[in-house]
Amino acid sequence: MQRTARTRKGRAHILRRRQGSGEKKRFGLEYKWSALSCTSLGALLASINGASLIVALPTLLRELHTGLFALVWVLLSYLLAQTILTIVAGRIADMVGRKRLYVGGFALFTVVSLLAGFATNAGELIAARTVMGAAGAFMMANSSVIVTDAFPRRQLGQALGINMMMAAAGSTLGVVVGGIMTSISWHWVFWFNVPLGVIGTIWAAVNLRELVTLKEGQHLDIPGNVTFLVGILGLLVGLTQGGIKGWSAPEVVGGFVAAAIFLPAFLFIESRVKEPLLRLSLFRSRTFAFGNVSALLNSVARFAVMFMFVFYFIGVDGYDHLMAGILLIPLAGVMFVVAPISGWFADRAHARVVSTIGMVVTAIGLVGMGTLIGAETPYWEIALLMVIVGVGSGIFNSPNTRAIMNSVEPGQRGIASGTRTFLTNIGGMLSIALALSIITSSMPREQMFKVFSGTVGHGMTAAQAAPFISGFHEALLVGAAASIVGAVFSAFRGKGDQEDG
What gap in Å lies between CA 319 and CA 417, rounded to an integer? Predict the structure, then answer.
C-alpha cells in the first residue's frame, strides 16, 4: 500500500518535472506562470461577479418586484450549487482531467452570465445563478489543484497569494463595477462578465496542461449528494425565513427538522460508502482537519460583512449604488496588498502561526464594527475597521490553503481542494443566512422593506435606524466569535511534515 502511494507520488512528480519545468514556454512564460495566470483570471471573474451582484441587490428587490427571501436566494442559489458540486467536480477532475473541467466551467459561466442578464423575474435569475454556481464549482474546485500541481512547494504560498490577490482585486473592482453597471441597468452586472469570460476560456484552453496521471474506476456518491442537498437546503430555508416569517412558521420548523435528519444521515453515509462525497479519512490528518475547520469559520465570520454593509450604506445612510460601491473598497482593496505578502510569509513560516494571526486580526476588526458603528459614525472610522477585517482575511487565506493542499498526496489534491471549497462555501451560506435571520428578527416589516430596497431617501436618523443597527451589531459579533474559535483551531493544527517540508 505504501509502495503504491510512493509510486503514484513519484509518477506525479516526474510528470510535473517533465511538463511543468518550463522546457516548453508559451508566450514567453514557464508553465507554472501561465497556469497561475489562468486560475487568476478565474478568481478575478468570480470575485467581480460576486461583489458586483451584492451591490445590485436593493435594485433587484425593487425592479424584479420580489421579496427579501427570493432576493437572498439569488445569492444563496449560486453558493448552494457550487457547494453541492465542488467535491463532485474535484472527483470528476481526478477522473477526466483538471484542464478539461476548468475550461468547460469557464465557458459555461460565460454563457450563463449572458443569459442571466435577460432574466425577467427572480425565479429565472435564481435558475441562472444556480447554473453559474455549477460552472463556478468546475472552476474553483480545480483552481488550487492546478496551482499546486504546477508550482514547487517552496513557491506555492507565493502563487496562492497571487491568486488571492486577484480575487481581492476582483472584489475591489466588483463593488465599483456593480455601482456603475447598476446605475445603467442591473442587467449589465451580468453582461459585464462576458468579455472577461471569453478571454479567460480561450487563455485557459491554450495554456493549461495535465500534469498528474488520471485515476480510473471512480464513482460518484449519489446518496451523499442527495442527503446533503436536502439537509443543507432545510437549514438555509429555516435560517433565512425565520427572521422574516417567524421561527414557528411551518416552513421554518420543517427546514430545521430536515436539517436535523439529513445532515447526520449524510455523515453516516459518508462513513460507509466506497467513494464518498466527503472523504472523512482525510480528516485523520490534524493539519487537514483543523485547516478546513478554520477555513469554514473564517467564511462564517467575514462572508456576510459586505452583504450587510451594502444595506447599511444604501438602506440606512441613503447613498446610491455607485457611492456604496466606492465606500466598500477598503474592505476588499486591502486584501489586494496583503494577500501576496501573506503568501510570501507562508513559504517562510508555519501556516498555523500566520493563519492564526489572520483570524485574530479579523476578530478584532469585527468586534470594533459590532460595538462602534452606528447610523452617524464617521466614514473614516468605518473604513479603518474595514481595513482591519480585510488585512485579517488577507493574512489568513494563503497560508491556510497552502497547508491544506500540502497535507495530502498529489493524487488526492482534487478531492482536497474540493473539500476546502465545499466547507468554505458552507461557511459563506451560513454567514449570510445567520446575518439575515439576526437582522430581520429585530426589524419591523415596513422598515425591513425600506432598508433592503434602498428607498429611505436621504438616510435614517439614529432612532429610525436603531433596530437595523442592533441586528447589525449582533451579527458582526457572532462573526467575531466564529473568528476567535477559528483562531483556536488554527493554532492547534500541529506541524505536518508535508505542510512545512
Answer: 39
The amino acid sitting at 247 is W
* Chain mean pLDDT for the chain: 81
Q: How far apart are CA 77 and CA 236, in angstroms?
A: 10
Extract the C-alpha cell encoding 463. Answer: 432612532
Which DSSP string corresponds to 158-173?
HHHHHHHHHHHHHHHH
C-alpha cell at 309: 454593509
Spatial CA neighbour of 468 closest among 497, 492, 442: 442
pLDDT confidence of 143, banded at 50, 70, 90? confident
- The widest CA-to-CA distance across the chain, in whole angstroms, is 70
Q: Is the pLDDT of residue 485 over 90?
A: yes
The amino acid present at 150, given as its one-letter code, is A
C-alpha angle 39/42/46, rounded to 5°?
145
Whether the per-residue pLDDT at 296 is higher than 90: the answer is: yes
Greater confidence (432 vs 16) lies with: 432
Number of residues in the chain: 501
- Report the distance separating Cα 331 and Cα 481, nearest Å: 19
> b vs e for 350-388, b when ≥16 Cβ sit within 10 Å of the residue's Cβ?
bbbebbbbbbbbbbbbbbbbbeebebebeeeebbebbbb
Backbone angles phi, psi at 276, to 5 degrees: -75, 155
d(CA 35, CA 44): 14
Measured in whole angstroms, the distance separating CA 439 from the mean position of its chain's CA atoms is 22
Task: Return the amino acid letter for 433.
Answer: A
Contacting residues for 7 by C-beta, under 8 A, at least 6 apart:
none
pLDDT of 383 reads 94
Q: Is 212 exposed, middle or buried (0-12, 13-18, 19+ CB in 10 A)?
A: buried
Amino acid letter for position 303: F
Range 194-220 average pLDDT: 80
CA count, 13 A, side-chain hemisphere, 499: 25
**What is the separation of C-alpha 54 from the centre of its chain, rounded to a whole number of angstroms?**
13
**Please, which residues have CB within 8 angstroms of residue 11's CB and are 6 or more apart in sequence?**
213
Selection from 426, 434, 428, 421 nearest residue 231 by Cα? 426
Give the pTM: 0.77
